[in-house]
Amino acid sequence: MHQDITSGDGAATVSDDGAVDSEVPTASNTPPELTAATDTTPSPSPDPEPEPEPEPIVHTARLAVVGDLMSHDSQIDHAYNSADGTHSFTSVFEQIRPYLEDADYTIGNLETTLAGAEAVYSGYPVFNAPDAYAEAIKEAGFDFLTTANNHSNDRREAGILRTLEVLDAIGLDHAGTYATQEDQERIFIKEINNIRFAFLAYTYSTNGIPLTSGKPFLVNMLDEDLMRRQIEQARQEGAEIIVVLPHMGNEYEETPAARYVTLARNLCLYGADIVMASHPHVLQPTEVFEVEDEDGSVRTCFIAYSMGNFVSGQRTKPRDVGAVFYLDFEKVVDEHGSATRLTGASYAPTWVQFYNTSWAVDIKILPVSDTLMAIDAGEEIDLNPGDITRLREVHRETSRKMLGEEVPISEMLPIYDFYSP
C-alpha cells in the first residue's frame, strides 16, 4: 500500500514501511507561491576595513668623535721596543677602547704625518709617527681620521701622500688631504646604518710651510667659500647629515674666540648639521641651536668648539684632558618620505696617564669616571696618589665646562648627556 505525501506534479510516495520511493521536487517543480516569496537580490557587501598605515621604519646611528691624536717624541720613545726595533702603541688605547667601540663610526684628528722611517720619526715641531701608530688607532676602534691640520705638511708633499697610502692600506677612512684635484673635489659620503653622512675637514694653516707649487688641493684650507660650496655639494649628492671637522681656534684658550664662534655658526647656516673642531688642545664648551632653512624646515646644529687632546705628550693642565663625544641620530622612513635628525649628544671625560706607580713612562688614555669608580671600590689601580687627585679635578672641571655645573663625585656617570630634544 502507498500513501501520497505531495500534491501537484510531485510524485513522492511513502510505502507501508515508510521508505520514500520517488523523486524529490526540483526547482522546476517548486510551488509558485514559494518562487514568488524568494528575494534573489544580493545583499550589499559590508564596506572593507581601511588598510592600516604601514609602520615607519626607524634607523639609528651613533658617531663617536675625539680630538687630537698627537705623536710627541715621548710617545714615540715609549712605544719603541729596543729588542727588535719596532714600535707598538696598542697599550695606549687599551683602557679607552670599549668607549670607542661603543659607536657605529669613530672619528679622530690625526695630527701627525706617516712619512716613513726613512724620513726619521719625530714629534714637535715637525711630526712623523711610525705606521704602527695608525695601526694601533685602527685596532682601538677608529674608522675615520681627519688629516687636515697645521701639521699636515710637516714632511711636505711626500709626507702627505705616504700618509694617505698608509691609511688606505690599513682601511681607515679619511678626509682633508688629497693626492689629486679630483680627489679633493670628491665629497666623502659614508652610509652608516642606512643614514648617509658627509665628512668634510679643513685647517686654518700648515704652519707657514707652503704647499707644493700648483697643488693647492693637497690640503683643504679653512676657506669659507670652499667650505660653503662643499657643504652644498654634499647635500646635493644625497648627504642626510653633514659633519664638518675644522682645525681652528686659539691654542690653550678654554673659551672660543668670537671669530671662530661666528665661523662655526656660519657653517651651520650653510647647511652643516655638526661642527666638531680641534686645535686648541683643550676642551671648550659646546653649543646646540635650531636653524631654519630656505624651505622652512628646521634643523638642529651641534657645535663642539674644541674637543681637546685625546692623546699627546703635553702635560700642562688642562692639555692632559679630553673627551669622547657621542652623537646619536635617527632616520624615520614612512610613506611620505624620510627625515633624519640628531636625537642626542653626550660625552665621556678622558685623561692621559703618563707614569705608573714606579714612575716609569706608561702612557694610557683613561676613562675618568670608570677609573674613579674602580678606585673608590677598592680596586688596585697603577696610579700615583697625585694622579688620582688629578682625576678628581678633571671630573669636576669637565662637568663645569660641558654641563655648566659641577657633578659631585658621588653622582658621577661614565657618560653625561648634554643634549636631548
CATH fold field value: Purple Acid Phosphatase, chain A, domain 2
Determine the number of helices (DSSP H or I, runs of at least 4 residues).
11
Average pLDDT confidence is: 91
How much helicity do the residues have?
25-40%
> Mind telling me the CATH class?
Alpha Beta
CATH architecture: 4-Layer Sandwich
Multimeric state of these chains?
A: single chain
- CATH H-level name... which superfamily? Metallo-dependent phosphatases
- The structural domain count equals 1
Say how many strands there are. 19
State Rg: 35 Å
Q: What low-confidence regions span 5 or more consecutive residues with pLDDT below 50?
A: 1-37
Percent of residues in β-strands: 25-35%
Spatial separation of the terminal alpha carbons:
96 Å
Globular, elongated, flat, extended or rod-shaped: what is the shape?
globular
Q: What class would the helix/strand composition place it in?
A: alpha/beta
Q: Report the biggest beta sheet as strand number plus sense, adding barrel if it closes.
A: 9 strands, mixed
Q: Provide the succession of SSEs.
A: EEHEHEEHHEHEHEHEEHEHEEEEEEEHHE
